[in-house]
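Pasting as-is:
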Amino acid sequence: MIGLDTNVLLRFLLKDDERQGEQASRAIRQAAARKEPMFVGIIVLCEVVWVLTSRYGYGRSRLLGLLEELLDTSGLEVERRDLVRKALDDYRASRADFADCLIGRIHEAHGCQHTLSFERPLKALDTFRVL
């Protein structure tokens, strides 16, 4: 298994740097040809979402589509895929940030009744209690 860093995954997805985009695509294609899985950690997903929203202006629906596509990509191992899917459902149903939705689901998986926060958009999620 080979891990993907945020910058490699972004170059593969965006192709905004021709040379690096081709290097990332080649590495991923070669791993797929060898049937060697690529691993994407949850921190990488959070960084990808942050970059795509803050730098590239991606909206919620575009991000949801991209993340769902990544989750469904064969040969791509996503850390805690089950929690990421639940976080995507929360993200779709609320105004909360994706990272916050994922934090709530991770804490829930570790036995937390809820997660305390001051962020008002999290009020809609049953994994949070807003102070």
